[in-house]
Design goal:
Number of strands: 29
CATH class of the largest domain: Alpha Beta
Largest sheet: 8 strands, parallel, barrel
CATH architecture of the largest domain: Alpha-Beta Barrel
Number of domains: 3
Structural class: alpha/beta
Strand content: 15-25%
Distance between the termini: 40 Å
């Protein structure tokens, strides 16, 4: 194991001394109250992260102006009435011995909420690439008001007891909009042809923040070092203005990347990207400034950060989603238990996609505590039960571990000889190996708990009657759907699971029936092996959304490999090396075909619930046994079934 002498070394920035070099960067939670005030959920979430002992926590975006918030739930700092709630966030960090900075933010045009209300503003009246709506162009008075608002928000952060403030100058929000030639086409002193000319607004914001907080209060500036979009600015462009930022009052540069409109596969950093993939930008920044630089880039283990710090590529390292997956990862590393760290799998389902798709507040697909700190049970049950968990996939493993943690006697049953469920297939397509590492970790944790595990046994009514459990959690998963299509029984046909586990190795031209995740990933797997693939999907649009990081990367890879995706296509018959399809244009035959792979998904396998009803034994059905779904739903349902006991 790598010694972590750099990670656990202190660093001082003006009045601020950090005990280590780990930063928890801003992450939106959607936990705030409807009026932008700090909620009990915000406080509980912050307290749990602070208990992990990072050197510095930076809050999620905190609005400096009512016409600059992404949504009403975004935390606010545009009025003194917000100070008491914000002070509670600072207090819980300090109680844990952790320093905390408040990130101050103005969204500019990047808010569907403000665009719909006609309140969005920007340097120029150019539509948002993502939200399409057009903001109004800011007047000089608007600009002066925004600058003053940043200063006043910084003053409130200091009054609320924060140890530093961070100016959000990244990710396509207002300050980046002024820097970008794609959104700033002003002809006055706040526009210009070069990045240096367009930096005036940013520099005036930094100066005003410095004026309001005084000379010794640390000021961080989070930048998109590269815009990561066609015709956007580069890190070489950014290097021309970084010394000006430092001269204006920046004490720390937080080196992020990307903007609204950048490909999701870049900015959401999915599993395709290696830990530390973005460190090179921090290194480029250090070439031109002599202040501490924070590196970001899908870090999951402190040993990864140690290498970056030892090389001198950055002075601090930000672990974002890792704090959601395991807020105690730094404690475990300090204790030499790196193997016990629950590593983020970069799926983005709970932390990013929920917000993008409007599904609710923050979650973590593999850590059911995240975002649910106020309801997460922390004390043993007063009424311990004999609990059977039937099924050893994600839902069952989480249900077993959570029930055991709460003091119940648990037996975990699995009909197969090994645990893992559908993850054993999900880990096989390209760039999905991390899912396998997670399920292996989860299985190892269950074994370390001493939970009784019985594999190779299919539980039936007789076994339940004999064992007399007090409660049963049914996590038996799903079974393959075989559509009633003429010719489906032909040797030409197999299913996705047979392909993924290597029982069938198609070559030539392969039809994949089903364009949802199973079909897309199976096509990805086959395309990687040089197979020519055509995907047929009944829906008119892909059910795998390109706006998500995994969806974007999947579509890109399949497009690059010339995979043919046909939507609105219903297979009506399978012949001898031919598939008959019905589309809006009519019927057509696709031939020649060397293999047809059925990938239309799963249906619940929940037969045991009828036996349990007959026996009068209380139960819960979770995961795919309830309805086929993603890891995030399976994990949360498994956990909540255990919490309900």
């Amino acid at each position: 194991m790598i010694a972590l002498k750099h990670v656990f070394s202190p660093i001082t920035v003006k009045s601020l001394t950090l005990s280590n070099r780990v930063v928890m960067p801003p992450m939106g939670t959607n936990l705030g109250n409807a009026d932008g005030t700090v909620s009990e959920e915000n406080i509980a979430y912050m307290k749990r992260r602070a208990q992990g002992g990072p050197g510095l926590i930076i809050t999620e975006i905190t609005g400096v102006h009512p016409d600059g918030v992404v949504s009403p739930h975004q935390l606010g700092a545009y009025d003194d009435r917000f100070i008491p709630g914000l002070a509670k966030l600072a207090q819980v960090a300090h109680e844990a011995g952790v320093k905390i900075a408040m990130q101050i933010h103005h969204c500019g045009r990047e808010s569907v909420y403000l665009l719909r209300a006609g309140r969005a503003m920007a340097p120029s009246a150019i539509p948002s690439i993502v939200f399409r709506g057009t903001p109004r162009e800011m007047t000089i008075d608007d600009i002066k008001e925004a600058i003053a608002s940043f200063g006043q928000a910084a003053r409130r952060a200091k009054e609320a007891g924060f140890d530093a403030v961070e100016i959000h100058c990244a990710h396509g929000y207002l300050l980046t909009q002024f820097l970008s030639a794609l959104s700033n086409q002003r002809a006055d002193e706040y526009g210009g042809k070069t990045l240096k000319e367009r930096s005036r607004f940013v520099l005036e914001v930094i100066r005003e923040v410095r004026r309001q907080v005084g000379p010794d209060f640390p000021v961080s500036v989070r930048i998109s070092a590269e815009e990561s979009i066609r015709n956007g600015y580069t890190v070489e462009d950014m290097q021309t203005i970084l010394p000006d930022m430092v001269e204006a009052g920046a004490d720390i540069i937080h080196a992020s990347f990307g903007t609204h409109g950048s490909p999701a596969g870049i900015t959401q950093a999915p599993a395709e990207y290696e830990p530390g993939f973005n460190v090179w930008l921090a290194r480029k920044i250090k070439e031109v400034v002599n202040v501490p630089v924070i590196a970001v880039g899908r870090f999951t283990l402190p040993s990864q950060a140690e290498e970056v710090l030892a090389r001198g590529d950055a002075d601090l390292v930000a672990f974002g989603r890792q704090f959601l997956a395991d807020p105690d990862f730094l404690i475990k590393a300090r204790e030499g238990r790196e193997e016990d760290i629950r590593q983020c799998i970069a799926c983005n389902q709970g932390c990013i996609e929920r917000e993008i798709l409007g599904e609710g507040n923050i979650r973590c697909s593999i850590n059911p505590e995240t975002g649910q700190e106020t309801v997460y049970p922390t004390t043993p049950s007063r009424n311990p039960k004999n609990v059977w968990v039937i099924g050893g996939g994600p839902a069952g493993l989480i249900a077993a571990s959570e029930a055991h943690r709460l003091g119940h006697k648990v037996i975990l049953w699995e009909k197969n000889k090994s645990l893992g469920g559908q993850i054993r297939y999900a880990q096989i397509p390209p760039h999905k190996e991390i899912y396998g590492r997670w399920i292996d970790w989860q299985i190892d944790q269950v074994r370390k708990m001493g939970i009784e595990i019985k594999t190779g046994i299919e539980v039936d009514e007789g076994l339940i009657r004999e064992g007399k459990p007090d409660f049963v959690i049914v996590a038996t998963g799903g079974e393959k759907i075989i559509p009633p299509i003429p010719g489906i029984e032909r040797d030409l046909v197999c299913d996705a699971w047979q392909v993924l586990e290597g029982k069938v190795r198609p070559t030539g031209h392969v039809i994949v029936m089903g364009g949802a995740l199973v079909g897309m990933e199976t096509a990805d797997f086959l395309s990687e092996k040089g197979v020519q693939v055509t995907i047929l999907e009944m829906l008119e649009r892909s059910p795998v959304l390109k706006i998500t990081s995994h969806g974007y990367m999947l579509h890109k890879r399949l497009r690059d490999k010339n995979c043919n995706l046909i939507f609105g296509a219903k297979v009506i018959a399978i012949g001898d090396r031919a598939v008959e399809v019905e589309t809006a244009e009519g019927k057509k035959t696709i031939a020649p075909v060397d293999k047809v792979v059925v990938a239309v998904g799963l249906k619940p396998k929940d037969d045991l619930k009828y036996a349990l009803e007959r026996l009068g034994i209380p139960f819960a059905v979770v995961g795919d046994a309830k309805a086929p779904r993603r890891i995030i739903e399976a994990v949360e349902e498994g956990a909540r079934a255990a919490w309900s006991l």
